[in-house]
Specification:
Number of strands: 19
Number of domains: 2
CATH superfamily of the largest domain: Diaminopimelate Epimerase, Chain A, domain 1
Helix content: 10-25%
Largest sheet: 19 strands, mixed
Shape: globular
Radius of gyration: 18 Å
Strand content: 35-45%
Structural class: alpha+beta
CATH class of the largest domain: Alpha Beta
Order of helices and strands: EEHEEEHEEEEEEEHEEEHEEEE
Distance between the termini: 19 Å
CATH architecture of the largest domain: Roll
CATH topology of the largest domain: Diaminopimelate Epimerase, Chain A, domain 1
């Protein structure tokens, strides 16, 4: 098992090329390894395995055991893992996720190690239907949700997984731990939602905080950063190339002329070791 992070968004990675996980409850394993006191500690579990549609496949389980459709930071780490372990030979290759196939390009240093990765995250979808929003509409694609005395107005965006992008006066001052879980599980979102609080510093920089569905506050969310820039471009308050400032560091996001979103950022291996599977998780 390998622990990796991308801007502090950390997961435990297991290679199905090398490990047989048949008979193991993957949601239970994700919860066990994510536990910071009785496990290893992470935002979840990611599996890397063979694919019939791409060079490798990625499956993501959040810290609460729920399975996610996509993970931008996870994709960059999977790309690094697959290239450095020889699962792929080309610096550009495809990764299958639950919602389709994306293309990754690893940037390799003189030492042969991957130090950053660019991922083509595809074309976002906008509006209530994109995230299965079940509440009343507000100003076309936008939605409005009131939590206590606070009213949030924002744009639903799908990057293969659901996001609610909320422009606020100061993303750094919003009590994410208070409003994040209430918005994630609001009755208007039957499948729950990732929640992004964002503040443009200028047209090329965005301050970003996130409450991730199934994991809570994390240091970074790649799909959320992509969704936020896509929302800003669509609404006219961001340029097409933006540096996103997250708790864990910066991501460079570009929205191409054809609508595809390109994400570039770090991928870091922390350690590799053995995890002794509890008897309760064995078949």
């Amino acid at each position: 098992m390998t622990k990796m992070h991308a801007l502090g968004n950390c997961y435990l990675y297991v290679s199905e090329f090398e490990e047989d996980l048949s008979g193991i409850s993957l949601p239970s394993l994700a919860m066990a390894v994510s536990d910071v006191r009785k496990g290893i500690g992470s935002d979840g579990l990611i599996l890397i395995g063979p694919s019939a549609h791409a060079e490798v496949r990625m499956r993501i389980f959040n810290a609460d055991g729920s399975e996610a459709e996509n993970c931008g930071n996870g994709l960059r780490c999977v790309a690094k893992y697959a290239y450095e372990r020889g699962y792929v030979q080309s610096q550009t290759f495809r990764i299958e996720v639950q919602t389709g196939v994306v293309e990754a390009e690893v940037h390799v240093g003189a030492d042969g190690r991957v130090n950053s990765v660019t991922v083509d995250m595809g074309v976002p979808r906008f509006g209530p239907a994109a995230v299965d929003y079940q509440g009343p509409a507000h100003e076309g694609e936008r939605v409005e949700i009131t939590i206590g005395d606070e009213t949030f107005r924002g744009l639903p965006v799908s990057m293969g997984n659901p996001h609610l992008v909320l422009p606020v006066a100061s993303a750094e001052e919003v009590p994410v731990d208070v409003f994040g879980p209430q918005l994630e599980r609001h009755r208007y979102f039957p499948n729950r939602v990732n929640v992004e609080f964002v503040s443009p510093r200028n047209r090329k920089e965005l301050v970003f905080r996130v409450w991730e569905r199934g994991s809570g506050i994390t240091f970074a969310c790649g799909t959320g950063a992509c969704a936020s820039v896509a929302a800003g471009v669509r609404e006219g308050w961001l340029d097409r190339r933006v540096r996103v400032h997250l708790l864990g560091g910066d991501l460079d996001i570009e929205m191409a002329d054809d609508g595809r979103v390109l994400m570039t950022g770090e991928a870091v291996e922390v350690f590799t070791g053995e995890y002794h599977l509890p008897l309760s998780l064995r078949a």
